[in-house]
Amino acid sequence: MQPKISSFFNPSSSSNAPPPVSKNEDEELANWEKKEHIIVNTYKRRAPKSDGVSLDGSKESLSGAVKKPTSADLCLKPQLKTLNKKRSYAQFHLELGQSDFLLHTCSTCGIKYAPGDEGDEKAHKTFHKDYTLGIQFKGWRYERVIHMPCVEGGRIVLVLDCDPPAQTNKVQQVVKMMEIELGTGWIFHKLCKVYLFISSQRIAGCLVVEPIKEAFKVLSGTVDERTHVTSTKKTSVNSATLQFGEIMLQREVVKKGSSVNCPKILDGNHNGAIFCEKETMPAVCGIRAIWVSPSNRRKGIASQLLDAVRRSFCMGFVVEKSQLAFSQPSSVGQALASNYFGTGSFLVYKPDKLAC
């Protein structure tokens, strides 16, 4: 049937007249016309051009060519932008002591970050500033300020465990910063009192104190020998003389010995053995931990915090220096105690690891 229909609509090129149609073919064509047929037309949209002209040269309206974004497309745009973000590392050389290109350890704050990544650079900058200058502090509406006559350009605030969450949460943030240098899991518990030194809207220092009953006295000779040693020793080992005509040059080796009076040693945490007396002595308050931000050290902040503890730890009287005790101080803590008491003999105690 189909070849006959095709031959009817497509006559041969030899003659313009249609071919003769037989009687049977007329009947089949009449039957085909009587039946119902479904004709399906399919249209395909061409890709729109910037000038609004289709591929065949006809002009199309911009409203029909541009597809309006749906709500689903708008919701997916931020997610696609985040997923397609690629990290770029603008570092082409390894620094001294750096193991790979991806992570760099800051020599001051100790944090590891990826140089060249915008997020890591910003996080490191914020943490580095909090570590060196102190944690940001906007202030509280009700503060327990310890009035000290010698505090200049700052104030000392006392925080207890019963204070509002805003204050206790800030104390936990400071304790985490202290744990970077002093170790984790022992600095703070619920019976402690926390003294914060506030300067320029930052917490520049912190002292954690607890009540105690007894402590041990340090033998003065073990500390005096370590804290009052000269920081530089000159020796003439392997000295040599060089002569150029009438000019003579003599070589002399200068050997430096470590001492806690040296600023570089004070910045570190160097533990050592402490020799104490066997008998215990009565004590009132124990200095569990004390910390000052690196840029504010050697400014007398630690001594001011100790004075504030003596004035406010007990109600009604001032605690004597002989009733203060330090919790296993390092060489830096020993130097601080010796300078504060004016002697190498002071009290120490071993703190208990209570739950925070």
What does this structure look like?
This protein has helices at 2-9, 23-34, 62-65, 71-83, 118-133, 165-182, 220-227, 263-266, 301-312, 331-341, and strands at 104-105, 112-113, 135-136, 145-146, 155-159, 193-199, 202-211, 214-218, 232-234, 240-244, 247-251, 254-256, 276-282, 285-292, 324-327, 347-349. The chain is of the alpha+beta class and 356 residues long. Strands 3, 4, 5, 6, 7, 8, 13, 14, 15 and 16 form a 10-stranded mixed beta sheet that branches. The radius of gyration is 42 Å and the shape is elongated.
Features:
356 residues; transferase; alpha+beta; two-stranded antiparallel ribbon; single chain; elongated; 10-stranded mixed sheet; acyltransferase
Write the layout of secondary structure elements.
Elements: H1 2-9, H2 23-34, H3 62-65, H4 71-83, E1 104-105, E2 112-113, H5 118-133, E3 135-136, E4 145-146, E5 155-159, H6 165-182, E6 193-199, E7 202-211, E8 214-218, H7 220-227, E9 232-234, E10 240-244, E11 247-251, E12 254-256, H8 263-266, E13 276-282, E14 285-292, H9 301-312, E15 324-327, H10 331-341, E16 347-349
Parallel strand pairs: 14-15, 15-16
Antiparallel strand pairs: 1-2, 3-7, 4-5, 5-6, 6-7, 7-14, 8-13, 8-16, 9-12, 10-11
